[in-house]
Input
Amino acid sequence: MSSSPESALPESPSPEPLDGVVVADLSSTVAGQYAGRLLAMYGATVVLAEPPEGTPTRRTPPLAPDGRSFLFRHLNQGKQCVAATGEVVRDLVARADVVLRDQGAPPALTDTVIDCEVGDFPPGPYQDWTGTEMIHQALAGVMNATGSVGRPPIYGLGHRSAYATGTTAYISIVAALHERRTSGRGQRVRATVFESASAMAQNLVSQFSYNGTEETRARYPGFLAVLRCADAWVVLFAIRNWPALCRVFDRAELLSDPRFATSGDRLAHWPEVVDLLQERASAMRGDDVVAACQAGRVSAEKVGDLGELVASEHWRARGMLREVDGKPALGRLFHLGGVR
Output
């Protein structure tokens, strides 16, 4: 018996990059199933094998009024779902090009199959441990550097480390498929949340390894400003084009102020600059500030909610959304060779 969590993504008239690739998704985690979602998004036939009680993500909040998990719907669009009986799994694995699975002993595979193991920790002192999203963010160093001075670190909500891991697994699988076109052989690849979260933390891990120092929640030592406008927050990074920045906020007098004569002077007095910009920003609309800053080649972005993102011209131009069974769904994260 098989079913689909949602209808498959709309077919494209163009050839799909992963046409003909069959993926046995035996994973039970957000990271593994997101990797399967990405493979399905680019044309692979992905079959999710679930235990009798259903995969754990079916029960993960937030839930729709009918009790179905929004997360499960997001992770498994475009896939087929089957009951993971022994015979079904053996048949699925036998015809798969890719096996996507949790950590543990691999199934018997031919030497043409790409076996991708997705887990929490690599071989080492933590290899048998299970980590939560919060633990992985803390180990990666990002929590220590996030938040206000003198207050506890901030935990980034959601499944961001798991999504980074799913993306890592996807890239590893596609690279192995590409290599197989030449060698004809499969290979074993691994993606772990520990390593992916550390990589996502930019240079925090390498900084500590190199000189024993670590990022703190002290003030960012650069030209960063978070301004409260009349209707929204705006974040700007004003490392260049000081005259344009002054014009945007009607602060021409700052151009002749000796406190801000050079880039070094401005950095030394940056909190004063932010206070002066904030005085003007309070009466300005966020969209107007961003448009004027960008026209003057000053990096700026409005902090919008999800509804604003969905309705934005930027998302429409990039084709970020598709409609599946009359409901909006995220489209492709990137486009390849004209494939939409």
